[in-house]
Amino acid sequence: MEEMSPAELVANISKFDLAQTLHTIPIFQAQSDAVAIDLRRVRKFIRDLEEQARWSIENYQRASQKRRQILEPNLRKGLGNCERALMNFKKR
User: Which domain of life, per UniProt (predicted)?
Assistant: First the structure.
């Protein structure tokens, strides 16, 4: 299949050229499916990051004071990494 921009797809559909429209509908559907798959992957990635952060915080809260002193730098670093990963996804 040839790649067309969404604007080209809409332009072809709006011309009422039935043959061209029938040709572009599968392309449009394939692009739509690809976007839906990407959105599901991003949602799963975000849920995984949130779960990992939640687990780390709960682990920190259950720890003794001495253990908290050991865990705190790693917790801060891990939460910072999660935040950067989310920002990178937001930029895409």
Answer: Eukaryota
In angstroms, what is the C-alpha Rg of the chain? 23
What residues does each domain of the chain span? 6-91
The answer to whether the predicted template modeling score (pTM) of the entire model surpasses 0.85 is no
The Cα 66–Cα 44 span in angstroms is 34
Q: How far is CA 7 from CA 3, 10, 13, 28, in A?
A: 12, 5, 10, 11
Tell me: the pLDDT tens digits for 20-72? 677 778 888 998 999 999 889 988 988 998 898 899 889 889 989 898 888 88
